[in-house]
Amino acid sequence: MAKVLVFANHKGGSGKTTTSVHTAFALGDRGFRVLLVDLDSQAHATLYAGMLPYKVSRGIFEALCAFVEDGVVMKEVIHKSFCFDLLPSSEELGGFEAKFSSFPRREAIVKNFLLEVEKEYHFVLIDTPPSLGLLTLNALVSGDFLIIPVKVDFLSLAGLAQMMRTLYRVNAYFNPELRLLGVVPTMYDGRTRVAKEVVRQLQENFGKEKVFLPIRQDVRLMESPSFGQVVFQYAPHSRGAQDYQAFVEEVLQRIGENG
Ligand SMILES: Nc1ncnc2c1ncn2[C@@H]1O[C@H](COP(=O)(O)OP(=O)(O)OP(=O)(O)O)[C@@H](O)[C@H]1O
Ligand SMILES: [Mg+2]
């Protein structure tokens, strides 16, 4: 069975997509079989992984519809990208909530679909949208581990209590297996007091063992997608590349997959 890692934070621009794409690449590069599921209709992970969302004629939305309506598993929607597989998204996924809001067990649609494809993978990674709507709920219901990327500013801290309440609710009602693997501070600028203070508060609130080493702010991480590359390819010696390699090592250690 694959281990399912969910990257979620309803606050926009917290580093979910950047973290999930680099984790997919770094795990794939280490020889693990990885499926990255883009569960956001913004389709940024799809774009990052080299596919143009408007060219995705059949992606996650069409696959989920076919699965729910006809019981068909459209494996052909999965594409090879870099050293991992991608289940791409497109604007159409924005219609998921309206289409399935009154469907029985609507929170488990993605989980039931993934059960059909995950056998081929060591890891399934899910990138989620900046909301706590039905898509994010589906991701959390599918997950074994939750990773919360947090941009290090004070406003980011405010939303974390709601994120944790969501985790407890999912644990209580839908998925007792899901556990917090950790919070990863992103866009960290060590020259500022505020960055250090935010990390200190995260450690105080979550416990030191739940806070990953920070991903430093790095312009290379912003630039790399415009060249159709991840930062490991675009700038392999950059801070971003070093920090995401260290992050993935920490992920493997925490879930006991090292060595
Ligand atoms: N460590 C970093 N240093 C500099 N820029 C970064 C870093 N991490 C992410 N970014 C940039 O910040 C922006 C937001 O990152 P990203 O898209 O990963 O966040 P997100 O949480 O997925 O956003 P959304 O909520 O819209 O899905 C992007 O432009 C990205 O390139
Ligand atoms: Mg995103």
UniProtKB/TrEMBL annotation:
Database matches in InterPro entries: AAA_dom, DNA_Partitioning_ATPase, P-loop_NTPase
Domain of life: Bacteria
AAA domain residues: 3-179
Pfam families in UniProt: AAA_31 (PF13614)
CDD domains: ParAB_family
Gene3D superfamilies: P-loop containing nucleotide triphosphate hydrolases
Protein name: ParA family protein
